């Protein structure tokens, strides 16, 4: 019998909700709980959440203002910065941000949510485990004595001290980590090794398939044809490709497709327009398809629509978050290059999607970028105004085909299944 769990996320950008989306079928009625926006949330709790969310979005937008933006963001980012990994040392001492979070929790922040979950458990006559994609909700569950298991999913390639509890050696919170670095990082923060599971990031299972990954492999076969038009990479690594994917088709089932995804705060939308202007000729000829991802932000969709008049450009938009994720995931099946800032989407490289990395926003994204580059899964963008010049060079040399295969082979693709297996044993 499939084990159920309370899946908890937060409405702060897309990252935490995107992380929860592949696990929604574990939740009763398939409903993900939004810790900062559930029915009858106390006004005092909502105010604390809203202050945090609006502050982040405001700073993300201000960052684009010359000089002032850099200064404001620097000050903001110092609060959540990630300390150097080496030399390895005890980093379990709580930082200012973590102490502040717990000061609110000790005053009752989140108690209502945990009481409601306890009441639901009583009705179901079982203490379901909690799986949270944001550390604060996990802290709340432990502080208010939630009776079931408490899991927290790490959704960046490296994380700050704020992700671990105030007293990590005494905590029973268990962590699902996406890569080796975060698993080792949580140990430095004092989390007990038996509470750390290296699962991989939870990717959308419907575009992967089962453990044999046949759906993903079929899409990747066609992707490689587009990413290696001169067969430069193929000429060197034909045995490797055949071993993992079998025989490639002679022709792809879609034109070279670039998906440009804007972050939750709506920043960097101008990059998408620069890409289109640079590739305009190839777009008109049908040689390249561009997909612009506006997410759930109406103003971003309207900005794109205004700027692309006269061109057939697909825009992914929905007012509903889950509908947006469905549309986005479906588009990825025929996407060859994912161009985005290094958010949680960095882990989507494991789908055999080479990442063109837009400028990172914040300390966590700097570390995500570093991880993508060191792993060989992505490449920092050149000037998007001249994408029409450097992108064909990258394709001709097989650079992006190499990154796609390396990410597919070395990246963890079965995070969703791994997480479900662990939960089923609790």
Question: What this model shows, in words?
Answer:
- By secondary structure, the chain is an alpha/beta fold.
- It has 2 domains: 193 residues, no CATH class; 205 residues, Rossmann fold, CATH 3.40.50.
- Helix content is 45%, strand content 11%.
- The chain has 17 helices and 12 strands.
- Helix 2 packs across helix 3.
- The longest helix is centred in the N-terminal third of the chain and has 20 residues.
- About 2% of the residues have low confidence.
List keywords for this structure.
426 residues; alpha/beta; Rossmann fold; 2 domains; six-stranded parallel β-sheet; 17 helices; 12 strands; 11% strand; globular
Brief write-up:
This protein is of the alpha/beta class and 426 residues long.
Mean pLDDT across residues = 93
Main β-sheet description: 6 strands, parallel
The overall strand count is 12
Distance between the termini: 13 Å
| CATH topology annotation of the largest domain | Rossmann fold
Number of helices: 17
CATH superfamily of the largest domain, by name, is Glycogen Phosphorylase B
CATH class of the largest domain: Alpha Beta
The CATH architecture classification of the largest domain is: 3-Layer(aba) Sandwich
Anisotropy-based shape:
globular
Output the structural class: alpha/beta
**String of helices and strands:** EHEHHHHEHEEHEHHEHHEHEHEEHEHHH
| Helical residue percent band | 40-55%
Strand content: 5-15%
Low-confidence stretches: 71-79
Order the strands across the largest sheet as they lie in space. 2-1-3-4-5-6
Count of domain modules? 2
Evaluate the radius of gyration.
22 Å
């Amino acid at each position: 019998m499939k084990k159920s769990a309370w899946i908890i996320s937060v409405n702060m950008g897309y990252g935490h909700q995107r992380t929860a989306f592949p696990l929604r079928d574990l939740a009763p009625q398939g409903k993900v709980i939004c810790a900062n926006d559930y029915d009858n949330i106390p006004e005092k709790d909502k105010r604390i959440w809203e202050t945090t969310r609006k502050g982040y979005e405001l700073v993300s937008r201000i960052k684009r203002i010359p000089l002032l933006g850099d200064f404001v963001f620097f000050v903001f980012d110092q609060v959540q910065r990630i300390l150097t990994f080496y030399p390895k040392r005890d980093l379990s001492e709580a930082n200012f941000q973590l102490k502040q979070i717990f000061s609110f929790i000790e005053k009752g922040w989140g108690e209502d949510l945990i009481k409601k979950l306890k009441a639901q458990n009583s009705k179901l006559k079982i203490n379901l485990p909690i799986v949270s994609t944001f550390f604060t909700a996990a802290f709340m569950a432990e502080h208010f004595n939630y009776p079931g298991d408490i899991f927290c999913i790490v959704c960046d390639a490296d994380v700050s001290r704020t992700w671990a509890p105030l007293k990590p050696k005494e905590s029973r919170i268990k962590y699902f980590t996406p890569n080796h670095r975060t698993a080792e990082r949580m140990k430095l923060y004092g989390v007990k090794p038996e509470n750390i599971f290296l699962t991989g990031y939870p990717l959308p299972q419907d575009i992967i398939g089962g453990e044999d990954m046949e759906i993903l492999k079929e899409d990747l076969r066609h992707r490689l044809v587009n990413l290696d038009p001169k067969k430069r990479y193929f000429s060197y690594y034909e045995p490797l490709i055949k071993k993992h994917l079998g025989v490639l088709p002679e022709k792809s089932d879609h034109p070279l497709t670039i998906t440009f995804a804007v972050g939750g705060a709506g920043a960097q939308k101008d990059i998408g327009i620069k890409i289109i202007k640079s590739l305009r000729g190839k777009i008109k000829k049908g040689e390249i398809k561009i997909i612009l991802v506006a997410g759930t932000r109406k103003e971003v969709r309207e900005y794109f629509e205004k700027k692309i008049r006269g061109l057939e450009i697909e825009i992914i938009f929905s007012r509903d978050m889950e509908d947006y994720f469905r549309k986005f995931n479906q588009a990825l099946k025929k996407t060859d290059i994912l161009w985005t800032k290094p958010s949680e989407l960095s882990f989507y490289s494991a789908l055999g999607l080479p990442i063109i990395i837009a400028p990172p926003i914040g300390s966590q994204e700097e570390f995500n970028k570093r991880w993508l580059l060191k792993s060989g899964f992505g490449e920092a963008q050149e000037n998007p105004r001249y994408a029409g010049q450097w992108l064909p060079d990258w394709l001709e040399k097989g650079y992006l085909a190499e990154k796609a295969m390396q990410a597919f082979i070395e990246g963890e693709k079965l995070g969703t299944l791994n997480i479900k297996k662990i939960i089923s044993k609790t």
